[in-house]
Batch of 2 targets.
Target 1
Amino acid sequence: MSVTASPVDLENVHGAHNYHPLPVMVSHGEGAWVWDDEGTRYLDFLAAYSALNFGHRHPELVRAAHEQLDRLTLTSRAFHHDLLGPFCAELAALTGKGMVLPMNSGAEAVETALKVARRWGYEVKGVLDEQATVVVMGGNFHGRTISIISFSGDPVARTHYGPYTPGFRAVEYGDAVALEAAIDETTVAVLVEPVQGEAGVVLPPDGYLADVRRICTQRRVLMVADEVQSGLGRTGATFACDLEGVVPDVYVLGKALGGGILPLSAVAADDDVLGVLDPGSHGSTFGGNPLAVAVGRAVIRLLETGDPQRRARELEAPLREGLAPLVGHGAVGLRVRGLWAGLDLDPALGTGRDLCEELLGRGVLVKDTHGSTIRISPPLTIDRADLEWGLAQVRDAVASLAAAAGS
Ligand code: PLP
């Protein structure tokens, strides 16, 4: 195919079909808004699954990236560079942990946490070699590597990727009794999303995270909180665990840590846990590179002001109030935490994809997850008036699907 063909045609022919994007081609972004190549603007109600918590091209983040681009971009970890230490110290302070290991993607950080937990199990807890187990939650989403999809319950993510990595036990999310029963002398960690984002912003019952913490402490098992999507302001706190006053042993961070500019993830834990790694036992060429951590440091500075967290708290009520009228009138479920909502469309009206396409026509970008659920996660920097306009579009779009379905 000629390279003068449209970008979408080129993507369809030469790009692997592992996504099914909505029919919009974004070419420019600023704050909570993006524009297509014809100049039509859309409100970004997805924010790259929370990677854009600070909006598109946040000036302080872009400035940090520009300054670093002009100085040094990559050393690999074969040499020291002048930003890695400060970044680790600042992220350690933000998490309240002693040590940090930067990686790139969220899945890589989850893999890192799993490797660290296994090693901790063998070398500190005294689990018999090759016996370590990790308890995971039903409905989880932690990324796409072979080990991670090995304990996914989603057939779409798993099919024909076996043989699968052993050593994982799944229990129902929110069931502390089942969790306790699944732990035995081989268990090294419990891996939990404080809010299950990909599952549709599924909230655990009140007190559940505190129960997980208590059980992990009593049974000498590491509590690993995957805050890749829930962390860094989205729920109205720096970490979703904070809302229950819970401090996990290990934080897994990603997405917004890279400021919506580049991939940056990290694992944070104390020295008695992360200290099990020694040179050569784990790593990544780009992990902690100067460009990424320059942006990461600017992200941490934004979070230290408390402003993104406060915005998410302030906008929680308007978000809930804007969507609540739909429950029983086109929607069959609604969950809200901070500036983050999962809305279950009545399947009789259509699929989540139908709703996304209807919203696209009204200038709002959003993405479905699992059948008829859509997840709404605008940048935390969104103006209240823009949020309310977008929510009005959601109500209109649902009404229009209802009218078309004759209900
Ligand atoms: N963990 C959670 C909770 C996520 O939501 C995601 C991605 O959606 C990941 C891990 C994987 O992150 P990445 O896509 O950067 O590998």
Target 2
Amino acid sequence: MIDVASLRSDLLDWYDARARTLPWRTPPGSTERPDPYRVWLSEVMLQQTTVPHATPYFLSFTERWPTVQALAAVEDGDLMGAWAGLGYYARARNLLTCARAVADDHGGVFPDTEVGLLSLSGVGAYTAAAVAAIAFDRPANVVDGNVERVMARLFAVETPMPGAKPDLRRLAGALVTGHRPGDWAQALMDLGATVCRPRSPVCGACPVARHCEGLATGRPERFPVKATKAARPRRTGTTWVIRDAARRVALVRRPTNGLLGGMLGLPTSDWGEGGVDAPAPVTGDWRDVGSIDHVFTHFSLTLTVRVSETAGGDFIWMAADDAARTLPTVFTKALRRGLSALE
Ligand code: SF4
């Protein structure tokens, strides 16, 4: 049976001494609370990527849009462009929805409770809990994949994922108190990111090792126990790289709803499991130049790349270098493949 008070005190002491310095944080023990806008922005970014990857995006976003009002006023397309490389574009759309809700309905001030935050359009349960805890020091149960992993190991939970999730949430909730809840949430995050790492936990440097039931089994890295994975389906399709005499490439704006919605992309067929053959979007001297592979969360995609040098058609034309910086990764791969064949 884990001694909760002693576990909490060990982890908070470690956090006081070893907290990561991050641009959206204030140091542990500081009387100054962090800016809720910065906390919220960082949490949305960090749900899908790591701190080293997200940090340059965070710095660039906060330089371009230093307040939630400034972010709320941005054009959708500009935001999507700035988000490229952070993945999961639905989150970017939710980001904008939430920014506009705060700016328009709350005078630019974030609600300071978990319930109030959850009432904002575009804010999910995790983000509401994280912002309530970190920005407002509310005793919220902040549970992401890192915290699930730490709980599964600390308590040696044998139920396979994802069935264990409710138990892991309950176990995490039992550790939250009204004492320093913001620091507690961030201490768990730091532990999961730097010590209790997914594949190789550094148990020798762990501040809560003496409490850890997973470590006591001798194989802490076995937790959380994984369910057997279903194979990811494979889809295929065709994409067209069209370059004109001014060396610009043809792009299209993708429909708002659906995968990569609202983003710029290359013209493409639908992506289907049985293979999709579709007519080229414009008449041209088409050449097949191979294919590229890309893995999305729910399927793998193989895209045949066809190229042509032509003009005309109902496209958005953009310099190839700018397009390579703006497009989502799947299209950047296809664009590079196509342009290298046109050189
Ligand atoms: Fe994770 Fe090891 Fe610490 Fe247990 S002792 S919480 S497995 S790092």
